[in-house]
Design goal:
heterodimer; A: mainly beta; four-stranded antiparallel beta sheet; 11 strands; 0% helix; 52% strand; globular; B: mainly beta; six-stranded mixed beta sheet
């Protein structure tokens, strides 16, 4: 099976712009989670989608949003970019939203740089 | 507050020796999941080992084992027979009330 894929792998934007990142989960996986990784704040949970519905949300401002399509692919959007949004954005998928007997697999991440 | 703390920012170990990475967490929940993830340089994050809080037996995966002390809220990772490929950032994580919390990470270097 192919692993979790994320596109693009690298992105450079300027303050005030918006950005959309994409994540394709492992085939058959219906739960997709997004994380932000920065040197200062570490790894932080953004949100989780399952069956096209947001199931959980971390403590991020409304500028961060996401969605999931019927094929389980997910996108996250960040509007009005700030310098502090520079980070590695990780996507992870697992078969179901339940964690019992489930393992989550991470993608390689999208490195976003905001200038 | 539900937090995860890794008190060792960096550690090193000689190849073939054993090393223990520490992790403590804070929660009032009784049922939760704990994880250790490995993030090699410029490579993807992978799961090393997981522990369900309701299980008293410590999880083991080949050279990796945990010491889970529920009352002390401690979840340390022991790596036996360290290999050069174990060099990576190691993150302790806890799934608490459907919120995945990560520690700040421990950078482990295995020296030849």
């Amino acid at each position: 099976k192919a692993g979790v894929t994320q596109t693009p792998r690298y992105l450079i934007k300027t303050r005030g712009q918006q950005v959309t990142l994409s994540c394709s989960p492992i085939s058959g996986h219906r739960s997709v989670s997004w994380y932000q990784q920065t040197p200062g704040q570490g790894l932080q949970f953004l949100f989780e989608y399952f069956s096209e519905t947001q199931r959980n949300k971390g403590n991020f401002p409304g500028r961060f949003s996401g969605r999931q399509f019927s094929n389980s692919r997910s996108e996250m959007n960040v509007s009005t970019l700030e310098l502090g949004d520079s980070a590695l954005y990780l996507c992870a998928s697992r078969p179901r939203t339940s964690w019992l007997g489930n393992e989550q697999f991470f993608g390689p991440g999208t490195r976003l740089t905001v200038l | 507050a539900q937090t995860v703390t890794q008190s060792q920012p960096e550690m090193s170990v000689q190849e073939a020796e054993t090393v223990t990475l520490s992790c403590t967490y804070d929660t009032s929940e009784n049922n939760y999941y704990l994880f250790w993830y490995k993030q090699p340089p410029s490579r993807q994050m992978i799961l090393v080992i997981r522990q369900e809080a309701y299980k008293q037996q410590n999880a083991t995966e080949n050279r990796f084992s945990v010491n889970f002390q529920k009352a002390a809220k401690s979840f340390s990772l022991k790596i036996s027979d360290s290999q050069l490929g174990d060099t990576a950032m190691y993150f302790c994580a806890a799934l608490l009330n459907n919120d995945m919390r990560f520690g700040a990470g421990t950078r482990l270097t295995v020296k030849p």
